[in-house]
Amino acid sequence: xxxxxxxxxxxxxxxxxxxxxxxxxxxxxxxxxxxxxxxxxxxxxxxxxxxxxxxxxxxxxxxxxxxxxxxxxxxxxxxxxxxxxxxxxxxxxxxxxxxxxxxxxxxxxxxxxxxxxxxxxxxxxxxxxxxxxxxxxxxxxxxxxxxxxxxxxxxxxxxxxxxxxxxxxxxxxxxxxxxxxxxxxxxxxxxxxxxxxxxxxxxxx
Length: 205
Hints:
Layout: H1 3-47, E1 54-60, E2 68-73, E3 90-94, E4 107-113, E5 119-127, E6 137-145, E7 153-162, E8 168-176, H2 194-203
Antiparallel strand pairs: 1-4, 1-6, 2-5, 3-4, 5-8, 6-7
């Protein structure tokens, strides 16, 4: 091997090492620059893990192939249910038809609010489909509230029994403050048909 060949080989090795080192330095620099953005995205995901402030859930037995519907009404707003799945206060996040067309085994519907408008809230359950003779469908309703900096806390729960098609029952009527506190003495089950309310509001338009 000539001195020239040795020099050329040494130069090639040096260039190769320099390229590898520069590539590594560039990769480390990119990771350092991206870290603040990755951390912020994770924090944002944590903040939005539980959507909504007033969260209303409806559960009924997974082995019952019946269609039960959740209807909710916030202060100074129209009722929200499968015919009207959203307004300025509430959104129906999941409309469950029972076992039919369901990818899961759970019979479950949920509505949630944006913010906590102070005033009266009404939660109804409605038997949309046919109930076999002699069968009682226990529909469990859970209401939770999540403040601006709090995790969701359960404030009300009850089970309503449904026995026939088009039966609509009021699970709760209650009042909340703007901070999401349950107003003492405001909880009742005084019946108010929300589907009728919704139909009347449409007729007035």
